[in-house]
Here is the input.
Amino acid sequence: MKIDAVELRVLKMRLLKPFRTSFGVQQDRYPLLVRLEIDGRSHWGECVAGEGPWYSYETVETAWSILKGYLIPSILGRELRDVAALEALFLPVRGHRMAKACIEMAFTAALAEAARKPLSRYLGGVRDRVETGVSVGIQATVDELLDTMANHLQEGYRRIKVKIEPGWDVDVIAAIRQRYPEATLMADANSAYELDDAAHLTELDRFGLLMLEQPLAAGDLVDHAALQRQMRTPICLDESIEDARSARHAIQLGACRVMNIKPGRVGGFAEAQRIHDLAQAASIPVWCGGMLETGIGRACNVALATLPGFRLPGDISASDRYWAEDIIDPPFTLQRGGTIGVPTRWGLGVRVRVDLVERLTVRQETVR
Ligand code: OSB
Ligand code: MG
Here is the structure.
């Protein structure tokens, strides 16, 4: 299979509600899309890099630059038999896994289409629907948070994740627990704490949280291991799991008991699958996180979440949790039992609304 051209685009899309984490607040999202041209057909992918280097050192700007300057030139016009061939060509570029991932995922969807299979089946998925949770940002007041939660539980979401940071943590979780003693609840700190905060974080143990996601710095597997030894609540790593190697190190150190796998963060489906397999072998449950994707990235997350080791609800919410209008048709909707249906068409499985993409585009370039 040969990639004849790659189109890069940045869109500007407004989130229905601002999303606040310990990194800051986000209202507009600038998704970077790629479109691979293969035998006259288009295959879309989405890069999950954010606007600033907070969650990761990668940004929309760095991803664009690395894609255009290095990744795309390394693959254009070459015969690529499989994903391994693509990964081999990307190998000399150190890091920049979000930039690599969008091409890898679009290429995998193209391979699935050529094999006349839905992406999920092509990856080895075993489910036709995936359980979904919702990630709730930091709110102005506890009352607002409780109202937001009430809405999401009413909508049918199975698991609520709340963002925490110093000053918005133990008391907030206590208030939630008082109102919703039975809710499946977890917290995500996005690296907002240090090991010195261990005594404070351990207070979270009394709330029966499903897990505590990424309390400490991304690079700090050793401190996460020390914290996990002091906490009953399972620690889940997100930012720290950059690739299969860091996943293996996290397992060896005992730095977590759960893993959040985002294919867009780790370099694509193949690396995500390797992490999934390592976790399976170590009996560590995994789930699929999200990065406020459009329907294109969401379709990729849904497909990955059908693999057997994904046993916990993901941050794969319905399109209307993020966007007034998603760029795919039909949008993802929340269905019975708080699930999302897995597309059954070949390849990516969703139709991209090219007219809408065109209208939302703020930057565009084609590399041939
Ligand atoms: O830490 O999981 C995270 C969004 C952007 C960047 C990082 C994270 C998140 C979320 C939202 O928590 C997940 C989603 O609903 O897409
Ligand atoms: Mg997270």
